[in-house]
Design a protein that fits this description.
This protein is of the alpha/beta class and about 160 residues long. It has one domain. It is about 20% helix and about 15% strand. The chain has four helices and five strands; from the N terminus they run E-H-E-H-E-H-E-H-E. The chain has helices spanning about 25-30, 50-55, 90-105, 140-150, and strands at about 10-15, 35-40, 80-85, 110-115, 160. A five-stranded parallel sheet has the order 1-2-3-4-5, with no helix packed on it. The longest helix has 13 residues, at about 90-105. The N and C termini lie far apart (about 35 Å).
Length: about 160
């Protein structure tokens, strides 16, 4: 992939909550010089078009998962040093993703996990009919220890809870 082959830093913003993020592995495959990857997972409610009639009239589709075939088992990335995730929650989607990245990124030294990014004042007056899931970010030392153990990394010290 010549378009991404020379990337050194990638930031993917506003990936939908609840969708599989494994498809982002294609960036590691196509960008061998990548050193840092940042993923922000959130439903940005303050800019989301929710009127069903408007969505149909303008060709919006329902939120769908992007399906991606995992890279070959022998795939290794030799430059990625830092993975940052905003909107982290300790579920199978995130835990499995981090395990896979740690498995292929041989120089990975830091994994920074953050709670959701807040939009600011614009999202403060959400429609009460909208169901915004509460954060499941690990806040206590016990929750963080359990999450780190679930990740099963060779070096748990590389995991940093930043929120």
């Amino acid at each position: 992939m010549p378009v991404v082959s020379k990337l050194r830093y990638v930031s993917l913003d506003n990936l939908p909550e609840g969708c599989d993020i494994a498809w982002t592995m294609f960036i590691l495959e196509g960008a061998p010089t990548l050193k840092e990857m940042c993923i922000t997972v959130r439903d940005h409610w303050c800019i989301m078009v929710t009127d069903e009639e408007h969505r149909r009239a303008n060709g919006y589709c329902d939120k769908e998962d992007v399906k991606w075939n995992s890279p070959a088992p022998a795939f290794r990335h030799i430059n990625l040093a830092k993975l940052t995730i905003y909107g982290f929650k300790p579920d199978a989607n995130f835990v499995g993703y981090i395990r896979r990245v740690a498995e292929v990124a041989v120089k990975l030294a830091e994994i920074s996990l953050h709670d959701r990014k807040m939009c600011g004042e614009d999202c403060g007056d959400l429609d009460p009919e909208m169901n915004v899931c509460p954060s499941r970010y690990p806040r206590t030392n016990e929750e963080r220890k359990q999450t780190t153990e679930e990740l099963g990394l060779a070096s748990p010290a590389m995991v940093h809870f930043r929120s």
